[in-house]
Amino acid sequence: MPSPSTNDLWIRRYHPAPDARTRLVCLPHAGGSASYFVPVSRALSPKVEVLAVQYPGRQDRMSEPGIPTIEELADAVTREVLPWADRPLALFGHSMGASLGYEVALRLEAAGVVPTGVFVSGRRAPSRFRPETVHERGDDGLVAEIKALAGTNSSLLGDEDVLRMILPAIRNDYKAAETYNPGPGRELTCPVTALIGDSDPKATVADARAWEGHTKGAFDYRVFPGGHFYLNDCVPQILAMITEHLDGHRAGSAH
User: Fold this and answer.
1) Any catalytic annotation for residue 155?
2) Domains delineated in the chain
3) pLDDT tens for residues 207-229?
4) In this structure, are residues 6 and 80 in contact, taking their beta carbons and an 8 Å threshold?
5) Of 62, 73, 244, 255, which has the maximum CB count within 10 A?
6) What DSSP element (H or E) covers 163?
7) By its UniProt entry, which InterPro entries does this protein fall under (predicted)?
């Protein structure tokens, strides 16, 4: 296991669980931060150790430039995650984090580390690319999009100082997510589970089901009530699903 001094910029362990038999890598949405997954870490520890990824350009990494593409970000995240692969890993990514999780999983498999599963939440499959230009809007247009998706505390959006700090990271992430178009031909071998809100304006149920074409492994999808951030209201159900998956993998490994 790596020492904290080498990985603490990228990998946040809010509840270290040295005896956990499995790890869950959590990848935030556009504009999001590792701290979004503190409740998940608290709920799963000590049975599962949560590794929440902190992207550059936000919170305590505010002074660092953002990484402009999903592929480059996946290269960086994979380098940081590989040292933690001394025990089984699963990945969970929401929105932009889902695309990133898929790319990280591809890189892990290429390095000989097959995840126990990848959970892709609130994001259409790569094969369902649609051009979007939210990242090209002015600040007011970008803030309107964020408010519409209810992904950021609205009280912060009225603070001009806070806006100036967070908008560059949000714009960078939107650009990375909206220009991500990997093309056909790359499939995972591990299981993939797609999660979607039934009224998500960014992706339909059909968009989520299309993730089936991106793995040779088992596929499942789950539809929850709510919009793009449906998961904020469905945490117990999602955690139960992830725990069931990880328990099943542990049982299979034991046999």
Assistant:
1) no
2) 4-129+184-254 (3.40.50.1820)
3) 999 999 999 999 999 999 999 99
4) no
5) 73
6) helix 160-178
7) AB_hydrolase_fold (IPR029058), TEII (IPR012223), TesA-like (IPR020802), Thioesterase (IPR001031)
